[in-house]
Amino acid sequence: MITGQTKNFGVIGHPIGHSLSPAMQNAGIQAAGLDCVYIAMPVEEEDLAQAVTGLKTLGFQGFNVTIPHKQAIMPFLDAIDEDARVIGAVNAVAIQDGFMTGYNTDVVGFLQGMHNHGFSPAGKHAVLLGAGGAARAIIWGLIKEGVASLTIGVRNVVKAQAVADYFRPYMQIQVMDWQSWEFRRMLIQSQLLINSTPLGMEPNTLTMPPIDWAAVPAGIFVYDIIYTPAETMFLRMAREHGCQTLNGEDMLVGQGAEAFRIWTGHQLPTEPMAQALRKCLENQ
Ligand code: NAP
């Protein structure tokens, strides 16, 4: 029951009506028996400054940040955590005694997915498909975990090279056209293959990155951060090829649980969160 003591959390963005976070977070909060509530709050670009001040004034202990505010919110915060600073995007803000700190919990969410399935990228040869916003969190997560090598395969090498150049102070990353022979050679050596493109996501479920599966070693770990459908064509091909597969559900739940942990110190149970997420997706 919501009372005068209930602590408020939420997500700001625009549009926000499609957000899965309220269902996911409230399921975790309820299962943990906490007196908290999590709501979606539509905030347009021109209202961001007012909204941030308002959330602080209203005594929110934390909130998530989604499109289009992930970068724009940074100047309004008092501090930025290392992951968010390196990635250049904030997806969670903690408010403590009026002091606002920005975090990026996608890194933890991404890594947790693999850890939950007994896989560590440490010392592995990784191949990443795509170099957009989500890829930046993935790249930083892989670097932090001590991946041995990282190759990015894309359709647009020039654009992706800028991303690799950005991370050069931390690691030398190779960028290749994913239809080239040199990329095929990297696939042959890979131990971890990740899709961070939207290819295969609803409603375009019949598409996938142009991977030569004959070059992918059977049994390697294949991770698609898409969570709808639960098994993309890319993951189905990987499974049929004998690979260990993982979709983006753990990442989504993991980033949410990590934000709540930062705000409150409580580790929410992830299974009820995942169940709520699946139910929402079924009803969409
Ligand atoms: P983004 O910033 O738009 O980046 C997408 C990347 O995929 C870019 O490198 C883009 O290449 C490439 N790409 C897009 N369409 C393509 C096409 N038709 N053919 C070839 N390459 C294409 O998107 P994002 O924010 O990184 O998100 C990517 C996916 O990850 C989405 O499906 C999203 O739902 C999912 N995601 C999941 C989670 C999770 O928690 N599980 C979190 C974040 C994102 P160009 O630069 O050439 O356009």
What low-confidence regions span 5 or more consecutive residues with pLDDT below 50?
Answer: none
Q: Count all strands and give the number.
A: 12
Helix content: 25-40%
**Small molecules (ligands, ions, cofactors) in the structure:** NADP nicotinamide-adenine-dinucleotide phosphate
Based on CA atoms alone, the radius of gyration comes out at 19 Å
**Average pLDDT metric:** 97
Strand content: 15-25%
SSE sequence, one letter per element: EHEHEEHEEHEHEHEHEEHEHH
The CATH architecture classification of the largest domain is 3-Layer(aba) Sandwich
CATH topology of the largest domain: Rossmann fold
Shape, principal axes of CA atoms? globular
| CATH class descriptor of the largest domain | Alpha Beta
Count helical runs.
10
Distance between the termini: 27 Å
Major beta sheet, strand line-up: 2-1-3-5-6-4
Q: What would you give as the CATH superfamily of the largest domain?
A: NAD(P)-binding Rossmann-like Domain
Characterize the largest beta sheet: strand count, sense, and whether it forms a barrel.
Answer: 6 strands, mixed
Number of domains: 2
Judged by helices, strands and strand pairing, the structural class is alpha/beta
